[in-house]
Inverse folding.
């Protein structure tokens, strides 16, 4: 068919194919999947942060009408050990963190389950706990690698000597807060255990970012052949990474279903429970040193990072990655050190590594710009590397400077007074700030496969076990398939979100479209090679994406420039952000509507990181005390008056057959730094810790001197 059809499919402003089902309430999320005779699970969580469970008295709970079973560490079915400590649910009496599962009630209704759970008496032998992160601890350790498998430290040249002899330098410590993912749909699992035979099978309806990833983990924990575990997840109400790998609640639901021998078990995590066991972003402490010549040309960069992990399982956030790759400098160092504490294990949260890891360096660059008397945009342009400083590879495409220039023009950057604290509007100090964004193009060739079959009347079915968290995957994958088969969008029937479909990678690392799209394109082309343009009904082809080798030759990253305008009240320190504007270089944009939504969503979440989100970990009690959306504030419409996302035209033939780079995470990278830099420009107060609260700017009187 014609080129014009192809042009229409990829890059077109398609509305979401799942939009109508969602707004009319007919899209089944995990909890709504119909199962016969469901039962309901409510967990009992540890009220101490460290110790042992000595006794559980469940008599009052089991006496309640409608209670089906109470699971405890003393009676729960045994699981495989040594695969994933986070998933070893109810396998021992040991308490690793406050909020850990120590029992669970399953009942005929959710209300009875919840009431019964409150009647379970748990006795502990308590030990002193320690949840206090600081850079001065003497037990900080060096992990073997940082996520997923990067070197823990990096060193090129001698950044300390460069610092000693630098004409201009910045040295400061920056911190980012512990934050918890709160997608609209809290995590939910519906577990159906079929048959109490030697060859049981399990069906899970789960809100997950990866059905195959989930299936593999559950199969491993229960010693089942992976083919015996089916995971179904057509619609997911957000995840941001917290649904990227399975957490303990999934295993708990399956344990209960196994115990009940046939009764399906539904476990819908409550909003408050979201702050206990589904992961969070570690707080970070970042010691930055920048060394430069008088003109701002960097001679040295270092970032020494301290963050936390759990005692029972290591999670080492890769916070140093942006420092390794963002700017040219001959002398460079990054280190990561961890404190293993009595806390739940951290996990993935939108742009793990890059998001906290760009806050500190991008504020430091603002400080260096001031120290050198150079415009912050010009400073960044002067430090643009020719090839990737980390790997030495050429970039497949790098358009950071284009983003800075285009953004400056759109935002009206050049009207900015060079001095901080020089613009007032009534009772408000007004300022602007800029910061860079970066996110790698992550690829896993061969790990995703797709299937194309012909259904007659010009209609094709395309299947892949992908996940749509609300990102637009349903729609964009349909566009990719239509383009690759050279048919119109409406001729494609897409199927995703089921382990019965061809193997697919997780919707994580902004890699979904790259991995799944590559598999779809390759399969579609092979289908055409085999069956031509006039296939017979039932013709089918399944293939995995092959490795084009480009990632061995090129460094692949997306870039962006973010601009913020802030207003800070002279009397109260209230900080408002009337305007955020981002320009991104993300390869080819496959659907401007869903892409814009991802970028604006990321930037909004970045604003949230800058001003609002912080999980307050009470050191005496060992848990997050502001564990609900009343006290853990995420922005509402009034907090976010204007967020604009734009992109430049970028042609990158190496990243994947579509020419696209991931867009799910880059939007959050750098936003908080842009806002912190704008707060400085407005007030003259340099804040190096997020979230920035009113008192941080009030420490210096903001009124007229
Ligand atoms: Mo994202 S944190 O890679 O799901």
């Amino acid at each position: 068919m014609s080129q014009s059809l192809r042009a229409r499919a990829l890059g077109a402003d398609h509305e979401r194919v799942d939009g109508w089902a969602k707004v009319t309430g007919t899209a089944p999320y995990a909890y709504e999947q119909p199962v016969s005779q469901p039962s309901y699970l409510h967990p009992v969580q540890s009220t101490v942060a460290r110790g042992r469970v000595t006794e559980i008295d469940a008599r009052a709970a089991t006496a309640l009408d409608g209670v089906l079973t109470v699971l405890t560490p003393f009676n729960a079915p045994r699981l495989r050990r040594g695969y994933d400590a986070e998933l070893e649910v109810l396998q021992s009496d040991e308490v690793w963190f406050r909020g850990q599962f120590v029992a669970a009630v399953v009942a005929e209704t959710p209300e009875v389950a919840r009431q019964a759970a409150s009647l379970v008496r748990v006795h502990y032998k308590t030990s002193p706990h320690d949840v206090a992160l600081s850079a001065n601890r003497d037990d900080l350790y060096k992990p073997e690698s940082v996520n997923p498998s990067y070197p823990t430290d990096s060193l090129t040249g001698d950044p300390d000597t460069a610092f000693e002899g630098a004409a201009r330098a910045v040295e400061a410590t920056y911190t980012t807060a512990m934050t918890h993912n709160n997608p609209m749909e809290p995590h939910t699992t519906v577990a159906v255990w079929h048959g109490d035979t030697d060859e049981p099978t399990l069906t899970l309806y789960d809100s997950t970012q990866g059905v195959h990833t989930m299936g593999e983990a559950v199969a491993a924990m229960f010693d089942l052949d992976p083919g015996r575990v089916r995971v179904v997840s057509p619609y997911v109400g957000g995840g941001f990474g917290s649904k990227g790998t399975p957490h303990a609640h999934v295993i708990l639901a399956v344990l209960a279903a196994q115990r009940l021998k046939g009764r399906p078990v539904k476990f819908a995590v409550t909003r408050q429970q979201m702050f206990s066991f589904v992961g969070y972003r570690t707080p970070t402490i970042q010691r930055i040193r920048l060394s430069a010549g008088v003109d701002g040309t960097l001679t040295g960069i270092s970032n020494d990072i301290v963050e936390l992990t759990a005692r029972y399982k290591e999670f080492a956030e890769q916070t140093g990655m942006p420092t390794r790759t963002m700017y040219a400098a001959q002398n460079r160092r990054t280190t990561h050190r961890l404190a293993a504490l009595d806390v739940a294990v951290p996990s993935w949260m939108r742009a793990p590594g890059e998001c906290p890891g760009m806050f500190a360096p991008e504020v430091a660059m603002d400080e260096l710009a001031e120290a050198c008397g150079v415009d912050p945009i010009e400073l960044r342009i002067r430090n643009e590397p020719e090839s990737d400083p980390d790997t030495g590879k050429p970039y497949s495409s790098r358009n950071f400077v284009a983003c800075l220039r285009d953004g400056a023009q759109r935002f009206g950057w050049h009207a900015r007074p060079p001095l901080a604290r020089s613009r007032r509007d009534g009772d408000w100090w007004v300022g602007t700030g800029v910061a860079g964004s970066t996110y790698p193009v992550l690829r896993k060739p061969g790990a995703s496969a797709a299937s194309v079959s012909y259904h007659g009347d010009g209609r094709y079915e395309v299947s892949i076990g992908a996940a749509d968290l609300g990102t637009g995957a349903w729609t964009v994958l349909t566009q990719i398939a239509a383009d690759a088969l050279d048919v119109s969008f409406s001729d494609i029937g897409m199927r995703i979100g089921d382990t019965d479909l061809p193997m697919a990678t997780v919707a994580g690392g902004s890699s979904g479209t790259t991995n799944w799209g590559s598999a779809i394109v390759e399969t579609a082309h092979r289908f055409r090679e085999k069956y031509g343009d006039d296939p017979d009904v039932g013709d089918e082809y399944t293939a995995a994406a092959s490795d084009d080798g480009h990632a061995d030759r090129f460094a692949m990253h997306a870039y962006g420039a973010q601009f913020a305008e802030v207003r800070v009240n002279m009397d109260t320190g209230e900080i408002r952000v009337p305007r955020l504007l981002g320009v991104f270089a993300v390869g080819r944009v496959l659907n401007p509507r869903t892409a814009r939504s991802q970028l604006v969503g990321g930037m909004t979440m970045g604003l949230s990181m800058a001003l609002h989100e912080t999980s307050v970990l009470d050191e005496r009690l060992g848990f997050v005390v502001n564990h609900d959306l009343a006290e853990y504030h995420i922005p509402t419409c009034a907090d976010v008056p204007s967020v604009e996302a734009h992109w430049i035209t970028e042609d990158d033939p190496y990243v994947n057959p579509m020419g696209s780079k991931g867009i799910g995470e880059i939007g959050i990278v750098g936003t908080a730094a842009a806002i912190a830099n704008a707060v400085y420009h407005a007030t003259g107060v340099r804040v190096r810790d997020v979230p920035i609260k009113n008192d941080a700017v009030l420490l210096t009187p903001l009124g007229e001197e």
Notes: The domain at 33-128+182-275 is CATH 3.30.365.10 (Aldehyde Oxidoreductase; domain 4). Residues 1-7 have pLDDT under 50 and may be disordered. The pocket of dioxothiomolybdenum(VI) ion is lined by residues 209, 240-241, 244, 348-350, 352, 508-509, 665 (CB under 6 Å). The longest strand covers residues 298-310.
